[in-house]
Amino acid sequence: MTFIPCMLASRSFLLHVCQQQLCQHSAQLIKEADISRYYTTLLTNMAACSRLISRLTVVTGGGSGIGRAVCQRFATEGASVVVADRNEESANQTLELLSRDHKGQEHMALGVDVSSKDSVEKLVTNIQRRYFQPPSVCVNAAGITKDEFLLKMEEDDFDKVIEINLKGTFLVTQAVSKALVSAGAAKGSIITVGSIVGKVGNIGQVNYSSSKSGVEGLTRTAAKELSKFGIRCNCVLPGFIATPMTDKVPDKVIDKLTAIIPMGRMGEPAEVADACAFLASDDSRYITGISIEVAGGLFIG
Ligand SMILES: *[C@@H]1O[C@H](CO)[C@@H](O)[C@H](O)[C@H]1NC(C)=O
Ligand SMILES: *[C@@H]1O[C@H](CO)[C@@H](O)[C@H](O)[C@H]1NC(C)=O
């Protein structure tokens, strides 16, 4: 474990904090490995501190999983966060979890259906009404899965996934970029969430993998078109991350998958959020149109 020089708190104190926090989020048995990982996250957050101060951020799918972790991480770094989710109750719950350590941080929660142009435009309008500016950072974390073999997949199930994962990312990216361009904003960072499955495919996920490959293509094109407006667009490709989405995966499958991950474990939503924070911040100011795999080495190459 690397220690950061500015850390004054003892490891045992931090472990205690971690344990408490983990208990709040999960009634499950807590493993030493979980605590250790959470502890690393806590240290990382404390060390990284404040790269996003005064950055207004909207996170779709912010009510759970990776989206929620992104909201928490960004709030820790000083951003004002708009938690947007189709499930308004879960967005409200994320809002409750957000830190307000920095002056001037003002978070809010809003309901949105990313597959509806109306709803997305309403979201951006509401944000501008409240903050008098468009969000300069946007994380498209809204997404769903609906698995079935190609030979059995219903047309509706294909369409639904594409509508939310791909068209939703398009609508949100377009609405936020339009608002940034018309406001004459100096810079923006749009982050999309693809999937390692978009690259390598996965049995039973013809709809999901198509939508996620599409997100990568969309991101590269958006990067080319929006660079002249100071807007960067990048994609994160999560591997096998423990979220409500993967809760539905049977234990047997989890064991099999974990066995082929070089790092030997599933990822945490916070580890994807770390990559998003980098892409949102000026630390990545010369980076656009790329995809970062956050997958523990799964499907390297
Ligand atoms: C979310 O919070 C807002 C503001 O407090 C409230 O008006 C709304 O009813 C809440 N929504 C749900 C579904 O709990
Ligand atoms: C993908 O298709 C399957 C099978 O038709 C379906 O059950 C699933 O809901 C679809 N995925 C999504 C995200 O809609």
From TrEMBL:
<keyword id="KW-0732">Signal</keyword>
<dbReference type="GO" id="GO:0004303">
    <property type="term" value="F:estradiol 17-beta-dehydrogenase [NAD(P)+] activity"/>
</dbReference>
<dbReference type="GO" id="GO:0008210">
    <property type="term" value="P:estrogen metabolic process"/>
</dbReference>
<keyword id="KW-0597">Phosphoprotein</keyword>
<feature type="domain" description="Ketoreductase">
    <location>
        <begin position="55"/>
        <end position="244"/>
    </location>
</feature>
<comment type="pathway">
    <text>Lipid metabolism; fatty acid biosynthesis.</text>
</comment>
<dbReference type="InterPro" id="IPR057326">
    <property type="entry name" value="KR_dom"/>
</dbReference>
<dbReference type="InterPro" id="IPR002347">
    <property type="entry name" value="SDR_fam"/>
</dbReference>
<comment type="subunit">
    <text>Heterotetramer with CBR4; contains two molecules of HSD17B8 and CBR4.</text>
</comment>
<keyword id="KW-0560">Oxidoreductase</keyword>
<dbReference type="InterPro" id="IPR020904">
    <property type="entry name" value="Sc_DH/Rdtase_CS"/>
</dbReference>
<comment type="pathway">
    <text>Lipid metabolism; mitochondrial fatty acid beta-oxidation.</text>
</comment>
<dbReference type="GO" id="GO:0005759">
    <property type="term" value="C:mitochondrial matrix"/>
</dbReference>
<dbReference type="InterPro" id="IPR036291">
    <property type="entry name" value="NAD(P)-bd_dom_sf"/>
</dbReference>
<dbReference type="Pfam" id="PF13561">
    <property type="entry name" value="adh_short_C2"/>
</dbReference>
<protein>
    <recommendedName>
        <fullName>(3R)-3-hydroxyacyl-CoA dehydrogenase</fullName>
        <ecNumber>1.1.1.239</ecNumber>
        <ecNumber>1.1.1.62</ecNumber>
        <ecNumber>1.1.1.n12</ecNumber>
    </recommendedName>
</protein>
<keyword id="KW-0444">Lipid biosynthesis</keyword>
<feature type="signal peptide">
    <location>
        <begin position="1"/>
        <end position="20"/>
    </location>
</feature>
<keyword id="KW-0443">Lipid metabolism</keyword>
<comment type="similarity">
    <text>Belongs to the short-chain dehydrogenases/reductases (SDR) family.</text>
</comment>
<dbReference type="GO" id="GO:0047035">
    <property type="term" value="F:testosterone dehydrogenase (NAD+) activity"/>
</dbReference>
<keyword id="KW-0520">NAD</keyword>
<dbReference type="GO" id="GO:0006633">
    <property type="term" value="P:fatty acid biosynthetic process"/>
</dbReference>
<keyword id="KW-0275">Fatty acid biosynthesis</keyword>
<keyword id="KW-0496">Mitochondrion</keyword>
<dbReference type="GO" id="GO:0048038">
    <property type="term" value="F:quinone binding"/>
</dbReference>
<keyword id="KW-0276">Fatty acid metabolism</keyword>
